[in-house]
User: Fold this.
Amino acid sequence: MSPYPRPGAPSDEVAVAPGRASVKADLAARLRCPACRRDGTLRLSAEVSDAQEVRDGTLACSACGARFAVRRGVPELLHEPPAHIVAEAAGLERFAEQMRLEGWDRELVRRLPDLEHGYWYVQARSMHQLLTTVPFRPGESILDVGSNTCWAANHFAERGLEATALDIATAELQGLYTADYFIDDGGVFFERLLGSMDAIPLASSSLDYVYCCEVLHHNDAGGLRRTFAEIFRVLRPGGRLLMVNETLKTLRDPAGVNVEGVEQFDGYEHAHWALQYRWEATRAGFLTEVTEPHYKPFFGDAELPPPGEGSGRAGELGHRAAESLRRHGIPRRAYLAWLNQVAGGVSMNMIATKPRRYVGRHEGIGALERGVRTLAAGARTPIDRMRGRSPARLPRTPEQAAKAFLRTR
Assistant:
């Protein structure tokens, strides 16, 4: 867990607004029962609503009979969570209390990620990178995994996406109830789900994008594998996983996690190697591409900082060499691999695409068959892109993003 925040009346007295009831009913049709793991079997019984949505009610599974509460607009679909998730959710509640003591409130959260802080600069620059390189279209669906303060889900909703926030906690300032800070005024709306990323309570092939920002490392090795498999399942063919700022192990820092900083809040954090993230995504069936961190000056659109005072001729030559190398793809890729594997100093970014021709519901197939399918899909991708059957390759650099933007105008 990061040391910084990622970032009623009785039913017989409150009429359920039909429009908002239908919103939650539409969501229920896209859910998966976390008890029996069947799609589209949950039925909503609304009890209390406000001007925005159904706030309280019950979801009942027509297949297995399991029932799940809806409280403050959040379907509670965290079914039989393991002890470490229960502990981490309780830790987030304690962290929320600490944030209140430090002055965090509704207005400060609503400004996220645009705060004068190095951590939030990285978040803001990373969100800008996504919004300028990924061709989001209004009406497309996106799941914000580990949404925490829900600021990212809010940004996606403002862009016209059908956003859903997923988290294991509901505490204000560190969980899904923080969404009310954004949606109370009626200007924006997005759904919220209490659930786990390794058992996502959404139907198969129901999403266009899944956004994971600094959350996948809250898995051990087994959980990481299950999470990639679940993300693959819920994405439509051609859908993309957007992995942003993920914690890394490197040769220089083989731990990758500040254990002392998270123990007091029971953070369940396990940094993984860059190759492990990519392998688990590939094993799940994805076609993967590691992307650049534009917040790092070498990969960004600003000039490199000048050499330090006293660096002399050698510093000047090094600065000129870096400015020259950053204009070419191979040196950029080599330097990124060096940072991700050896030196550190960056988090990992990756785009993982579910092959367009993949059927999307074969949860039981083995790793070998999945690997063969993925290789075949990768071999077909260039031809499929030429024919418009697969998503185009995304821009890697700020300059490529600018050119792509100008072509759409």
Remarks:
- The radius of gyration is 22 Å.
